[in-house]
Amino acid sequence: AFRAWNTGNVQVTLNVTAQNWNPPTIAQYLALTSNATGTTLAPGQACGIGLVLVVAPSAPPGDFAFDITVA
To answer: CA torsion, points 18, 66, 26, 17, in degrees to nearest 10?
Structure first.
């Protein structure tokens, strides 16, 4: 878990996404969810961000990587 702060002067709504999967085919076996998607932060407000990675039982063994974006 980590925290996000709105250091700007306007309200923002958070969106947490996973992208740039490597290898690209692994995305069909994994799902990233977050409790922060859709959270609105007023200027100066902060919130905790929790992440959950769900792996399908049929996922192939091996290494993988992806980027997480909070915008």
So the answer is: 0
Q: pTM for this structure?
A: 0.84
Would you give the DSSP letter of residue 30? E
* Average of per-residue pLDDT values in the chain: 96
Q: What is the 3-state secondary structure (H, E, C) of 36-55?
A: CCCCEECCCCEEEECEEEEE
12 phi and psi angles, rounded to 5 deg:
-130, 150
Contacts of 58 (CB under 8 A, 6+ apart): 29
Contact 26/64 with Cβ under 8 angstroms? yes
